[in-house]
Amino acid sequence: MPRLKDALMKAAVQRSNHFYGVLFLLWALLLVISLFTLSTPLNIEEKNLINNIIQKTYFDYSADLLPSLLYPNGGTIEAGGPIFTNITKTINLHIDSRIIADKPVKVEGTYRITCRLISENSWEHDYYLRDEQRFELEGTDNTLIDGQFSIPIEDILSFFDDVEQELGTYSDGYIIKITPELNGIITYEDGEIPIDSSSELTFRLSSNTLELVGDKEFISETPIYNSRIVENSFNIMGKTVPIKAIRIISTIPLLLLTIYLSLGVAYKIKLQRNSQSELDKIIKKYGKRLVYLKKNIETTGHIILELESFEDMIRISEDKDLPLLFYFSGEGKPILYVIESTTIYSYMPETVAVNQKNEVVIGKDLFYVQ
Q1: In contact, 254 and 31? CB cutoff 8 Å
Q2: Which residue in 61, 238, 322, 340 has the most C-beta neighbors within 10 A?
Q3: In contact, 152 and 90? CB cutoff 8 Å
Q4: For position 79, what pLDDT does the model report?
């Protein structure tokens, strides 16, 4: 009974190579899934868009011209290219600045329109096209500025000339910047957003020509989200399964299968080791040291000493510095010799593996027990 019980336990662990191959593929799949779930957070932050706030400022301008060869009647033209200052009286500027939101917001603050005159790498001077104004608005479309402003080109050119004469310096070019200086906040529920004040219309004045530099339209967008922590999940064949559940489902079988495969591999290694005879082990370890004989030695007239173990043969061979002789005809038993004068030391290694000494047959599998 003990042998049968031991054989049954071994039979439960050992299976065919095909069976272990399938188990290994399953183990690899579970390992990949487990690593994925372990590297994936159990909870994630879910964001939902609850409002979208757009701050938009648009500039448009035209020029009032004096009669000239190019424009005999003078009048107002929509400026789409360079403006020639020698025949221009004023620039008519329209500024439209508003805040648009998907849901109503409250807007409070002030604004003023600044015209900044800049001498490149020299000096700056500000004056206001409109003094500070206050606004309080609420809704989805809030107009902060919607007005017409006039830029007196003749006065600006005269100012540049006066400053140059006063300072005794001259510039190759000037910059004119029109800036709506907006200060205030946008309020939605409990959140506050500062009003964007980065828009500006820029002209460069050089050689009696005024040219637009940069854009005429400025837009900034601020989406507002609310967030909550939700359980992370994965979609499997149309069904949503929590990552936590996948982690448990994959990890526990992975651990059990790892133990099972480890036992199986360990047992196969043990069987492989036991399947080697003593002769196999000797040749594998000491094959290069053996001197192989074609014929068996003549023992007549010699003292024959049969040793109990191969270790004794090795010790004698090393101590006496004698070669280790090996003879095996393929029939009978192999024999090892160490010859010292008239004394012959011999040893006959086992040619049968340990696990072939006692055979137990269970079903279609053959097992060996010690």
Answers
A1: yes
A2: 61
A3: yes
A4: 74
- Show Cβ contacts of residue 334 under 8 Å, excluding neighbours closer than 6 positions: 279, 326, 327, 328, 348, 349, 351
Contact 350, 277 (CB under 8 A): yes
CA distance 360 to 68: 119
Radius of gyration of the chain (CA): 49
β-strands 324-327, 335-340: how paired? Answer: antiparallel
Answer whether 129's CB lies under 8 Å from 200's CB: no
- Token readout for 74 is 């003078």
Residue 364 makes CB contacts below 8 A (sequence gap 6+) with none
In sequence order, what DSSP letters do the residues of 57-110 get, joined into one string? EEEEEEEEE---SSSTT-EEEE--S-EEGGGEEEEEEEEEEEEEEEEEEEEEEE
State the Cα–Cα distance between residues 10 and 24, nearest whole angstrom: 19
| 370 vs 353: CA distance, rounded Å | 11
3-state secondary structure of 212: strand
Instruction: Note the pLDDT of residue 278.
Output: 78
User: For 131, left (φ over 0), alpha (ψ -120 to 50), or beta?
Assistant: beta
Structure tokens, 5: 């019980």
pLDDT, mean of each 10-residue run, the chain (370 residues):
47 60 86 85 85 94 89 83 88 94 95 91 88 94 93 88 86 89 92 91 89 92 88 80 83 86 77 69 84 85 87 88 85 84 87 54 38
> How many angstroms separate the CA atoms of 360 and 272, rounded?
17
Q: How far is CA 202 from CA 48, 142, 216, 230, in A?
A: 39, 25, 9, 49
Query: Which CA distances in Å does 155 have to 45, 126, 159?
Result: 59, 14, 6
With vertex at residue 220, the alpha carbon angle to CA 214 and CA 226, rounded to the nearest 5 degrees, is 165
pLDDT of res. 56: 95
DSSP H helices in 275-336? 278-286, 310-320
Looking at residue 177, what is its pLDDT? 94
Q: Is residue 253 a contact partner of residue 266, using CB atoms and an 8 Å limit?
A: no
